[in-house]
Amino acid sequence: xxxxxxxxxxxxxxxxxxxxxxxxxxxxxxxxxxxxxxxxxxxxxxxxxxxxxxxxxxxxxxxxxxxxxxxxxxxxxxxxxxxxxxxxxxxxxxxxxxxxxxxxxxxxxxxxxxxxxxxxxxxxxxxxxxxxxxxxxxxxxxxxxxxxxxxxxxxxxxxxxxxxxxxxxxxxxxxxxxxxxxxxxxxxxxxxxxxxxxxxxxxxxxxxxxxxxxxxxxxxxxxxxxxxxxxxxxxxxxxxxxxxxxxxxxxxxxxxxxxxxxxxxxxxxxxxxxxxxxxxxxxxxxxxxxxxxxxxxxxxxxxxxxxxxxxxxxxxxxxxxxxxx
Length: 325
Known about the structure:
The chain is mainly alpha-helical. The protein is built from 11 helices and 4 strands, in the order E-E-E-H-H-E-H-H-H-H-H-H-H-H-H. It has a 4-stranded antiparallel beta sheet with strand order 3-2-1-4, with helices on one face.
């Protein structure tokens, strides 16, 4: 079967957006005057809520994602409503959104950025713990030096220098080990980053469930083909999120199961493969997850809901995305 191009596969249209308008837009340019202040910001709460922050007044308003538009007096289906519904997707890619901020490149179809430094440190911590068994004298010395080195992009080189200076180990051997472990840490950090920046699957799941309930409650629509399509997709909409979690678990397990310095190259290849699978999964689902999040169950045109159901089903049929590892 030929390789599918996520950018060209089954294009997704956002509900309520005219065909000649590009969406998402280039920036979070809200039209409502009360959402234009540079002292405002949106952050992500611990339970996935939107936190609306007015920085200088120390005001933090916790908003439920699905009803935030009512609290902010935004009409369902409006430009600002659609922008607001993009914020949970954006907050999976950036720490906060300030009105006027550029749209995260990944939401515009561009590649994900390199993993953040804290992910590299988390990956390093994980692999140091996994590789401690049977590392040999030089390996144990280098891993111990890594533990004592402050996090940073040059921590592998710093630990190598300390190991050579303090432990009198051969430079060439330690340098080779440092390069291999840095590649492995980078590969695992990319897995962590690819998982952390997955699309807003919970938002999509909630909206599919809510829309299904509304349609089945409505006597005019409960027997319609759209309602039948929703019945079909509702139990399956969790598949991409579960797949992403499965791939992350496989990456963590690979460090534990293959955990030895002799297996560093094999582990790096495994992490790279899982990173690629997570990246591909995100590419196929990012736009449709964001589009579903902009649905309003009561007011969105039923024909647009039907199109989104078809988009979702076509992606679920790409079996290679969901294969067990």
